[in-house]
Design goal:
434 Repressor (Amino-terminal Domain), 3 strands, 13% strand, alpha+beta, elongated
């Protein structure tokens, strides 16, 4: 008994064509993405994700290790300080995401911290997704 060889992408395409399979795959992929997301309970987790010590991060920020320690334990920070911390920790294009009345609004942190730019004040450069 011989089997006919089928390319992998052909087999996947035929499976996804079955009723309900593509929807189920999309559900599983969405759940996997959500579970893979790292939720930081504080700034230290972001630094640790970048495999940095407080001393290494402080050097990148041109501050003392004690300043990093205080920032990580504080309850609040200026947006510009937060942006500097995140960029020094290796974050690229740090954003804020808020949900208002079912709309997800994403704002670039750099746009919020930009100084003396009238275009930044009039349009913070966000993206809105209605859910």
């Amino acid at each position: 008994m011989t089997k006919t060889f089928r390319r992998g992408d052909e087999r996947i395409a035929s499976l996804l064509a079955k009723p309900g399979v593509a929807d189920r795959v999309a559900e599983i992929e969405a759940r996997a993405r959500a579970e893979d997301r790292i939720y930081a309970s504080g700034l230290a987790m972001i630094r640790e994700a970048g495999k940095l010590t407080q001393t290494e991060l402080a050097r990148r920020m041109d501050v003392t290790q004690g300043s990093v320690s205080r920032l990580e334990s504080r309850g609040d920070a200026l947006l510009s300080t937060l942006q500097g911390y995140l960029e020094a920790a290796g974050a690229r294009h740090p954003r804020l995401l808020v949900t208002v009345d079912g709309a997800e609004i994403e704002l670039e942190l750099a746009d919020l911290t930009r100084r003396s730019s009238s275009s930044a004040q009039n349009s913070p450069g966000g993206r809105i997704d209605r859910r």
